[in-house]
């Protein structure tokens, strides 16, 4: 999901993360090492 910035996201634990970038991608698969920001980890999933 692409969102125009700046963006503040409140995480489940109540903490807030912020990005001042013009546009950010939010992770919806939870595989990102930079969660809640997408790092395209979902693309590296191995297929059987």
Radius of gyration: 12 Å
Helix segment count?
0
Shape designation: flat
Major pleated sheet: 2 strands, antiparallel
Count of individual beta strands = 4
Percent helix, as a range, is: under 10%
**Helix/strand-derived class?**
mainly beta
Report how far apart the termini are: 27 Å
Number of domains: 1
- Spans of at least 5 consecutive residues whose pLDDT stays below 50 are none
What series of H and E elements makes up the topology? Answer: EEEE
**Percent strand:** 25-35%
Q: What is the average per-residue confidence, as pLDDT, rounded to a whole number?
A: 87
Enumerate the strands of the largest sheet in spatial order, edge to edge or round the barrel.
1-4
Describe the overall structure.
InterPro entries: FeS-contain_CDGSH-typ, MitoNEET_CISD. With 48 residues, the protein is mostly beta strands. It has one domain (2-44). Helices cover 0% and strands 29% of the residues. The chain is built from no helices and 4 strands. The protein has strands at residues 2-4, 7-10, 16-19, 23-25. A two-stranded antiparallel ribbon has the order 1-4. Strands 2-3 form a two-stranded antiparallel sheet. It is flat, with a radius of gyration of 12 Å.
Layout of SSEs?
Elements lengths: L1 E3 L2 E4 L5 E4 L3 E3 L23
Antiparallel strand pairs: 1-4, 2-3
Could you give a short description of this structure?
With 48 residues, this protein is an all-beta fold. Helices cover 0% and strands 29% of the residues.
Structure characteristics:
two-stranded antiparallel sheet, 48 residues, mainly beta, two-stranded antiparallel ribbon
């Amino acid at each position: 999901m692409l969102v125009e910035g700046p963006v503040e996201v409140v995480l489940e634990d109540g903490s807030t993360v912020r990005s001042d970038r013009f546009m950010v991608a939010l992770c919806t698969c939870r595989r990102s090492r930079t969660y809640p920001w997408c790092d395209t980890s979902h693309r590296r999933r191995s297929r059987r």
